[in-house]
Amino acid sequence: MKQKVKVGILGATGYTGVELCKIISRHPNANLVFLTSETYADKRMHEVFPELRGVCEHKLIPLEEGIERRADVVFSCLPHAKSADTCLKFLERRIRIIDLSADFRIESPDEYKKWYGNNHPNIEILKTAIFGLPELYRPRLRKSKLVANPGCFTVSILLPLIPLIHAKAIELKDIIVDSKTGVSGAGRSTKVTSLFVEANENFTPYSIGREHRHLAEIDQELSKAAESEVKIIFSPHLLPVNRGILSTIYVNLTKSSLVNKIADIYQSAFKKSCFIRITGNDIPQLRSVVNTNNCDIGWTHIAGTNRLIIVSAIDNLLRGASGQAVQNMNLMFGFEEKTALI
């Protein structure tokens, strides 16, 4: 029998870390060997999250101790800036990394500093990172030593837009994206806006226009697909639900007759993708994707115009984070892509 891949998780007690623990614990080809947490060091995982009793009962260790541990692959759920420095220590020991922070997503060090306020700690290592969206970079991910898992909003925007850009079916100007995310997208740390009284029975826009940090990676990947500069208008909103992202995307077709080709474009682009569901005029909704690694994509056309409205839906903690991270791990180690995710 083939030896199981040894897996470590840094920052295991955040929302993405917990989801990784659940997935890896049921993965037939993987074995959890260490979990780190600064807040809960020396406790066991099921003591912090009782639902993991009998599923994941590993002792949590400090990050400093985790850095010395051996593994075949390490998932980093650490905050931006802190993650990069830590990942380097594993890469130096030839341990493969899947980073869920933004530290390796943005190819330009100047853009990284602009959006995150820090100089990148290692530009040479940054050059080796592969953007972890399987539908775009599947062949390169199979050989990668360092994967930069995309942001949750990014996934919900790139998957529906890039096939249309490749097909030259949409105009590159005036792309407008209106996204709604569940409260878990803000992470597990205490924030006033995430408090029940603040979020419940409320609906709040934030970082609207050109302010949200995911724009750096969104514009980067759209521009690469178009082979010219693309800058979208992006307005995220906080939705009073636990999890999920629904993005409504407004674009102009290059020709109105292309509306009859949209389904074919998507089917061709995603024919090898087990987690993309093309719903057409059956517009996606959150409850259809929550607790799955799927991305549902539907659309409607405004009669008499070139305007197309696309809607995508994902689970922000799975397809937008931990599920996709494991999807990337499966590719890196030659496992079936959907292993432990269906």
Automatic annotation (TrEMBL):
<keyword id="KW-0560">Oxidoreductase</keyword>
<dbReference type="GO" id="GO:0051287">
    <property type="term" value="F:NAD binding"/>
</dbReference>
<keyword id="KW-0028">Amino-acid biosynthesis</keyword>
<keyword id="KW-0521">NADP</keyword>
<dbReference type="InterPro" id="IPR050085">
    <property type="entry name" value="AGPR"/>
</dbReference>
<dbReference type="Pfam" id="PF01118">
    <property type="entry name" value="Semialdhyde_dh"/>
</dbReference>
<dbReference type="InterPro" id="IPR000706">
    <property type="entry name" value="AGPR_type-1"/>
</dbReference>
<comment type="pathway">
    <text>Amino-acid biosynthesis; L-arginine biosynthesis; N(2)-acetyl-L-ornithine from L-glutamate: step 3/4.</text>
</comment>
<protein>
    <recommendedName>
        <fullName>N-acetyl-gamma-glutamyl-phosphate reductase</fullName>
        <ecNumber>1.2.1.38</ecNumber>
    </recommendedName>
</protein>
<dbReference type="Pfam" id="PF22698">
    <property type="entry name" value="Semialdhyde_dhC_1"/>
</dbReference>
<dbReference type="InterPro" id="IPR036291">
    <property type="entry name" value="NAD(P)-bd_dom_sf"/>
</dbReference>
<feature type="domain" description="Semialdehyde dehydrogenase NAD-binding">
    <location>
        <begin position="6"/>
        <end position="144"/>
    </location>
</feature>
<dbReference type="GO" id="GO:0070401">
    <property type="term" value="F:NADP+ binding"/>
</dbReference>
<dbReference type="InterPro" id="IPR058924">
    <property type="entry name" value="AGPR_dimerisation_dom"/>
</dbReference>
<keyword id="KW-0055">Arginine biosynthesis</keyword>
<dbReference type="GO" id="GO:0006526">
    <property type="term" value="P:L-arginine biosynthetic process"/>
</dbReference>
<dbReference type="InterPro" id="IPR000534">
    <property type="entry name" value="Semialdehyde_DH_NAD-bd"/>
</dbReference>
<dbReference type="GO" id="GO:0003942">
    <property type="term" value="F:N-acetyl-gamma-glutamyl-phosphate reductase activity"/>
</dbReference>
